[in-house]
Specification:
Shape: globular
Number of helices: 11
Distance between the termini: 85 Å
Strand order of the largest sheet: 10-11-12-15-16-19
Strand content: 25-35%
Largest sheet: 6 strands, mixed
Oligomer: single chain
């Protein structure tokens, strides 16, 4: 056994036995710590044996750091589909994605049909000014070909210092075109709005970042100003919203509720057990609401839909949601690294867990158009979006009844 492997073995044994003693001495009773120590020794020996075999017999040399990082990643990744080990760059990307701004070229990309494709350029961004379009295939960055199954790596290569130059090679209609541009600060709006006359508003939330509640409140204010008074109804579109920051989902729910529990959670630590409640102040002053959801609505989006449904504040229209009722916490580690692990199970105000079940819509409409057209013409084209058409129908009768009651 090499000296490096011996050193690794000593560290692993120390860590595992320390954990075993802390658990065994406090919880397992007389005699059990000895058994736990023996098991810890066996597992540490196995760990070191595997490392030694890989280092001596794998077809290519493997660095010790890579082996240990892979072991750590495997340990965390195997907990559940939502837990993961984050390198310094991956942790930085998560912080950027929740902040609502980053330095880059301003494109949304996705892995589609074994290729990295442009979903859409952000208005006013370097990519938009360069003429890049939705549907284009990204084939290289600065002359280096990209791999379609390494989406996060591609995103990292698109980002950089403000003012730095980057060249994107785009495949369109069988021709590769190089677009040179300079990176700038990109501010990503998580909320899009349209005014639906008479007296109805539409807002779509793409994801829940730190700024989403403020953006949504501002969007509703703009719609009410355009209406020259309070709205009579609002459609909140959460379709294909994968979630995001839990506190943002709580703040968004609180915008439309006067009181009551928004979400509660159970976990092993004190921090993982909590209840979040609404404060007085409904920005719509009780106006009718419809929330659109589908199978792509997950996590934080489900918290909002569940809270508004349980408090009878909104009618839920669409298809059952994804069903992710687990809360992940990002825990910083040394040298800029982190682990994201599941720490809680959350419950809707009624006490239900929606994990692997989802939020059931009040009105089920199976037509799921994907990402809706955000132009005014697109929003008003309810014939092409049956879920939106139903949402508008759900608003109108109640608005008429409300007017008659006055």
């Amino acid at each position: 056994m090499s000296l490096k492997t011996r050193a690794i073995l000593v560290v692993v044994i120390g860590v595992i036995m320390g954990l075993s003693l802390s658990i065994g001495g406090g919880l397992l009773g007389p005699g059990r710590p000895v058994i736990k120590q023996e098991l810890a020794w066996e597992q540490a020996q196995l760990f070191a044996e595997v490392i030694e075999r890989v280092k001596s017999e794998y077809v290519e040399p493997v660095d010790d750091v890579i082996l240990l990082e892979s072991a750590i990643r495997g340990m965390v990744d195997n907990l559940d589909p939502h837990s993961e080990y984050l390198t310094a760059s991956e942790y930085r990307d998560i912080r950027i994605s929740t902040s609502g701004s980053y330095t880059g070229v301003g494109i949304e990309i996705g892995q589609i049909d074994n290729a990295i494709r442009i979903i859409s350029p952000i208005a006013g961004s370097p990519a938009a000014r360069a003429g890049i379009r939705g549907g284009d295939e990204l084939v290289a960055v600065d002359g280096l070909a990209i791999e379609y199954d390494r989406l996060s790596d591609t995103m990292g290569r698109l980002r950089g210092q403000i003012g730095s130059k980057v060249t994107l090679s785009i495949l369109r209609d069988g021709v590769v075109i190089d677009h040179g541009m300079q990176r700038q600060i990109i501010r990503v709006a998580s909320v899009h709005k349209e005014f639906l006359r008479p007296s109805y508003g539409y807002v779509r939330v793409n994801q829940f970042s730190d700024n989403t509640a403020r953006e949504l409140s501002r969007a509703v204010d703009d719609l009410q100003e355009a209406n020259h008074g309070m709205l009579e109804g609002l459609v909140l579109d959460l379709r294909n919203n994968p979630g995001g920051v839990l506190d943002s989902a709580v703040d968004v729910s609180d915008l439309f509720l006067d009181s009551g529990v928004i979400v509660s959670a159970d976990g092993r630590t004190v921090e993982a057990r909590f209840t979040r409640s609404a404060h007085r102040g409904d920005i719509l002053d009780g106006a009718t609401m419809v929330v659109l959801v589908n199978s792509g609505s997950a996590s934080a989006a489900e918290i909002v839909a569940g809270a508004l449904q349980d408090h009878n504040r909104a009618t839920i229209v669409g298809t059952p949601t994804f069903g992710k009722g687990l809360v992940q916490t990002v825990i910083p580690l040394s040298k800029g690294r982190a682990i994201k692990i599941t720490t809680s199970r959350y419950h809707t105000p009624s006490g239900d867990s929606i994990h692997e079940i989802g939020i059931m819509p009040d009105v089920r409409i199976d037509d799921a158009p994907g990402f809706p057209d955000l132009s005014l013409a697109g929003i008003l084209d309810s014939e092409a979006d049956q879920q939106l058409a139903e949402a508008i129908l759900q608003l109108k009768p109640r608005s008429v009844m409300h007017s008659q009651a006055q």
